Amino acid sequence: MRDVRRAASVAAIGKPCAYCGNPMAAPTRDHIHPRWRGGTLEEGNKVLACKRCNSDKGSKSLASWLYRLR
Ligand SMILES: [Zn+2]
Q1: What's the pLDDT tens digit per position in 13-65?
Q2: Ligand 1 center from residue 12 Cα (angstroms)
Q3: CATH architecture of the domain with range 2-69
Q4: Of 7, 22, 36, 50, which is most buried with the most CB atoms under 10 A?
């Protein structure tokens, strides 16, 4: 499982981040709806985002994080 996930992340290198749109040097998988807020593990709840966006968003909800970006 871990190898499959890593392969997906490697394949996403250079693709645009789901949040900021910049090419990702180190893609990470982010849960759109954080697990602790009741988010699911389903694929529909996951996006590939750059490390910066992922760590900046952290465990905030997507709506509150996007609001802060403005
Ligand atoms: Zn980003």
Answers
A1: 999 999 999 999 999 988 888 888 888 888 899 999 999 999 998 878 888 88
A2: 13
A3: Orthogonal Bundle (1.10)
A4: 50
How many whole angstroms from 69 Cα to the centroid of ligand 1?
11
Task: Break the chain into its structural domains and give their ranges.
Answer: 2-69
The contacts of residue 54 (CB under 8 Å, 6+ apart) are 28, 30
- At 34, which amino acid appears? P
Which residues have C-beta under 5 Å from ligand 1, the single-atom ion? 17, 19-20, 50, 53
User: By the 8 A CB rule, do 6 and 29 touch?
Assistant: no
